Amino acid sequence: MSKPAPPKESQADMAKSACARSIRCLLIAPAALVAAVSFPASANTFAAPEAPRSTAGFGADLLPKDEKSRAALLKSTAFDATIYGMSAYLQYEQMYRQVFDTSAPNFTGFNRFAHERALAGPDYATFKVPNSDTLYSTAWIDLSKGPVEIDVPPTSLKYFTLNIFDIFGNPSNLSNRTIGLNGGRFLLVPPGWHGSPPPGMTVYRAATVQLWILMRAFAQSDKEVAYARRFQDDVKIIPPAIPTQEAGVGMTPPAPAPGAAGFLRVLDYILRVNGCQPGEEALVSRFRVLGVVGDRPFGAAALDAPSLAAIDGGYTDAVALIAASKSQLGVSTGTGWMKVNKGEYGFNYIRRSVTNTAGLGANVREENASYTTFADGNGKPLDGAASRYTLRLRTPPPVNAFWSVTLYDAKSFTLYPNPLRRYLVSDRTPGLKVGADGAIDIRLQHLPSDGGNWLPAPAGPFFVVIRAYSPKPEMLDGRWLPPAIQAGAPAR
Asked: pTM of this prediction?
């Protein structure tokens, strides 16, 4: 079998330089850039000898002595740092529990999977808005000591992906879409790595030193769950037996804590260990006035009370903006649904932070196209205490793998507990009722339905997510859109 091409989403990563991957780039890049530009000696040229040749020549960051001016600078910078770093902070919270908190129930350390052996239910706590179509496995990868091998076995699973996120939440995939079903050996290499892979191994160039792997394996029936569990066990993570490079920054990972100081302490650690993305050096260097990526690790004690108050104000305003922007995550279809744009952020830090605040693990649409609605076709909020609803799929979502319609409690963003333990309707639902015309009616209501496919709803607000795994072109280009949810008779 010929070697598969690298996953589509990681092509940009392959061009990233080692300098941009390390926080040292913020300190040496300006001087290196000046030194790299040279001109032939000539009476008609001027070499600008006044330009500094080292970081010391640039001087310390200017922090206004005037209290009002200083507060304005610190508040605006803290706002920008929070918008920039919130997605990384939220992922770090999860990484800390699994990798550093030895008392956590899912503690594994780096480079080991924690496997969920059952489909997600209402008590699923790893992250918000999980699917209940696949078994989850999570692992955090540390490339600070060298490349890590990932072995994927051949499989006949309907769908799988090793969804790999850099520390900032940017996704890529080793999946049946990108590598096929024959498996393979993959070498995850850190930024700036220039070695040669062993024979038969495909190089995956990581964007950051720390990575999150969220593995999904399709299962619905008991037989499929058993097969998915075997697949989980057969995927192997093999760290370097002997470190091939020196470990990175030697600082203690801080415990996540609420408030601006807790956030900035974590952001400082993340940037020192993982660096920033290419093109972000100037932005991230501004955070030095906050005590982030400075000469020493962040310490709130080094800031006076007015400065801390200003920083806290900027952080609070940013958190409020992120919360207020959740409704803008997608593009309206005109039928009450939002087509969720996710996984491709670039420099759009607000979208990245809002997406990850709503729920971690957002993948690219080519892997999983999704639609979300909190309202019926008349724009009224979905509420199981007020009405009964019908979603009529005249044409099922066009997919190469599978589709599902999942209902969530809008108060908790969790799957709704019900006696049937039915959290979704999909093309794999046992006993799925399909009309003579091929249409599928899904009844969304609190009380049992007399016909159609009942998806139990709470006696209160709820929302619905359509997921389409390995969507076909007509879904990606918008030719297929979900119909409006129609309100029917009162709930009681």
From this structure: 0.84
In tens, the pLDDT along 228-282 reads 999 999 999 999 887 655 555 678 999 999 999 999 999 999 999 999 999 999 9
Burial 222-253 (b: 16+ CB within 10 A, else e): eebbebbbebbeebebebeeeeeeeebeeeee
Do 188 and 150 touch, CB atoms closer than 8 A? yes
Domains present along the chain, CATH in parentheses:
1-324 (2.60.40.1610), 327-490 (2.60.120.600)
Give me the chain's average pLDDT, please.
87
